Amino acid sequence: MVGTIEFWFDFASPYGFIAAMKIDAIAHPIGWRPFLLGTVYKKFGQSLLEHPLKREHVVKVDAPRMAHLIGLDLKVPADFPDHSLSPARLFYWIEGQDPAKAPEFAKAAYRAYWLEGRSTSDPAVALSTAVALGFDKGAVTAGLQEPSIKERLVRANDEAIGKGVFGSPFFLVNGESFWGSDRLELIAAKK
Fold first, then answer.
1. Residue 4 has what DSSP assignment?
2. 18 pLDDT above the threshold of 80
3. What is the pTM of this model?
4. Which residue in 60, 114, 138, 191 has its CB near the most CB atoms, within 10 A?
């Protein structure tokens, strides 16, 4: 029997975006787990999309093609590839306030980045997304800077590395790992 599926993602990942837009079709509980893919790469002495041909293929060909399959017109964020520190921190702050709204925030933030082309590293984008979901702007602004929230994201990054997460999206299902938005069908088929 499949328990909760751990859904590891980085807001700066186009494939994480595609998975987030499709994940509700899976009939299993989902544990949303944002992390910073750059932290994983740094740990192993690599950089994100370091090969220029790979980067161009991802953002100009493959990710737009995959998004088109589910009826979405992908717009690359203005600062791609850059960090997504603010939305990852805000996710964990929102999860502490109202756990049901955290996945809602993740999907709304992803749409702002990958459908509107807004910057993943601009805190104002993450803040306005949280405010649009009904959170007080002052509380959200303070939450983004809370030491406990900063530490929560550090722990999530360490946990991702400890569990062997090496990409976004990455799924853990009863100890079995799946990498990529195109693996959701395999996960959905698990009983």
1. P
2. yes
3. 0.91
4. 114
- Consecutive H or E run containing 9: strand 5-9
How deeply is 71 buried, as exposed, middle or buried, from its count of CB atoms within 10 A (0-12, 13-18, 19+)?
A: exposed
State the residue range of the domain holding 87: 5-188
pLDDT digits (tens, 9 = 90+) for 140-161: 999 999 999 999 999 999 999 9
Arithmetic mean of pLDDT, 159-185: 91
Residue 168 vs residues 39, 66, 128: alpha-carbon distances, Å: 12, 15, 24
> Do 138 and 150 touch, CB atoms closer than 8 A?
no
Distances from the Cα of 181 to the Cα of 20, 55, 72, 129, 178, angstroms: 9, 17, 14, 24, 9
Distance CA 79, CA 161 (A): 25
List the structure tokens of 95: 């999860």
Query: How many independent structural domains does the chain possess?
Result: 1
Which run of H or E residues covers position 179? strand 176-179
